[in-house]
Amino acid sequence: MKTQTPILLNRANLAKMPADFKRPSYNVENVKTGIVHIGVGGFHRAHEAMYVDRLMAKTGDLSWGICGVGLRENDRAMKKVLDEQDNLYTLIEKYKDGTRKASVIGAMTGFLMAQDNPQAVIDKMAEPEVHIVSLTITEGGYNFDASTGEFIAANPEVIHDIENPRSPKLVFGYLVAALKKRKENQIKPFTVMSCDNIQHNGQVLKKMLLSFIELFDTALADWVNENVSFPNSMVDRITPATTEEDITTLKSKGVEDGWPVVCEPFEQWVIEDNFCNEKPELNLVGAQFVDDVAPYEKLKLRMLNAGHSVLGLIGSVAGLDTIHESVDVMQLKRLLSVFMEKEVMPTLDMVEGIDVFEYRDTLISRFSNPFIKDTLARICLESSAKLPVFLLPTVRDNLASGRNVSISALVIACWAYYSDKHSSQDGKPLEVNDVLAETLHGAAINNHLDSLSFLKLEAVFGSLVNQNQFTVCYKAFVERLYQGEPVLLICEEVANNLLELATAC
Predict the structure, then answer these.
(1) 272 strand-pairing partners
(2) If the chain, 505 residues long, is cut into consecutive pieces of 10 residues, what is the mean pLDDT of each piece?
(3) CATH of the domain at 179
């Protein structure tokens, strides 16, 4: 397509979009809100909103539009873009062969900033037409202690929300206020659906919400427990951060979009069929409703998400920048493959219709897409919330069964080095973007004196430091990294040992 003056994406200009841009086949003016979604980022727009857009196009049922909610000030930039574009945005799928497919998504109906008008958010969630409140608030948004799994009642924002129920800060305060209003007005409660990468995410969300309510209203907690559904779900689509290059490339194709979304072609959504209110027929457009999501969750979290962390932390220490670059390095690709086969697969449950070896190979192929350019910095973001969910359950299962944990130990050793040095082995600066960044650094700075210093961080690792089978291996890796031994050579050795069925520790 020839370069042309870009057209601003909005409702008035929909008909003027380039011919190779897929546009909503339905009238976006007629879309009504049936879902409120908290945490509108790239992933939500590439996943749930895409599925809803696809559903409306297929069925003509326009009652399932999504009103976004931002709880944090940094959500304001997203609101500004969506407001300017009449809630439209471009979804760009990037294929391994360089092909790009662009679609305009019309599923969003609006965006509310909670701090601007908390009551407006509560009122929107309490509308009878809203059947689902969904969430992508990342692992840290659930306010649980990673080592115990319990709700952190001492969080100052929790205390604020209890004392200020009409102007909450946390998602729990808004959910409670809206559910209470629906109960008082005799309106059927909405289903609360997590779309975050947490195993048993619905159960976790229910536990956290009930723990919050029980602090001040046990009767309401009982009502929520008896009447509100929290389906577990497994979500999957690699969605890197949008870059200026993505925006500029889109402009060169004739479309001006302040915040397009880029993603891989693959998508998957498995949802527990547990809704207390109406549900959209997402099964008509590729989603799966199942009785038990757990096997799918475990497979995806332990293979894909943990695999990302393997590449992210080791690759960062090795001085690499992106996921596809890491997979292109023979030692890392091989280590990842062995990690999935030798450490993860023995812990998985059977998943009907899925061959885990094919699943592994597909994952590695997805990781190798050079056009996704998923940065290791993004993968390492909030590792203190991710690794207790993605990696440590595998470690604990393997330790309980006496199986090998050497690759997991190497990953955490690299995390310790990363948290201390804030640089790769060749001196490239590494930024630690983590709510526990100072705590992690404080624990890691003594690695050179006490190689178990980082592992003693109980809030992250629990009692892992007391597991001798793990610590012997971990300690050796920490010492080797601090002695300057190249991490890729360590990777090669560990993979070889495991493939030879030898003990790496």
Answers:
(1) 290
(2) 77 94 97 98 98 98 98 96 98 96 98 97 98 94 90 96 96 98 98 95 98 98 98 97 96 96 98 98 98 96 98 98 97 98 96 94 97 96 95 98 97 98 97 95 94 96 96 97 97 94 49
(3) 3.40.50.720
- In whole angstroms, what is the distance from residue 479 CA to residue 307 CA? 24
Domain count, the chain: 2
Domain identity same for 353 and 444: yes
Indicate whether 420 and 299 sit together in one domain.
yes
H and E: helices and strands count for the chain: 22, 14
CA atoms within 13 A on the CB side of 410: 31
> CA–CA separation, 196 vs 47, rounded Å?
11
**Position 504 in a domain:** no
Burial class of residue 435 (count of CB atoms within 10 Å of its CB; 0-12, 13-18, 19+) = exposed
pLDDT tens per residue across span 226-242:
999 999 999 999 999 99
Is residue 88 a contact partner of residue 10, using CB atoms and an 8 Å limit?
yes
Helix (H, G, I), strand (E, B) or coil at 487: helix
* pLDDT tens, residue by residue, 6-24: 999 999 999 999 999 999 9
Angle at 141 between CA 258 and CA 190, to 5 degrees: 85
Ranges of beta strands (E only) in 190-304 are 191-194, 233-236, 255-256, 261-263, 268-272, 288-290
For residue 178, give its domain range: 31-245+258-290
Do you know the residue count of the chain?
505
Q: What is the dihedral of CA 340, 398, 138, 368, to 10 degrees?
A: -10
Q: Are 275 and 311 contained in the same domain?
A: no
Helix (H) or strand (E) holding 21: strand 21-22
The overall pTM is greater than 0.85: yes
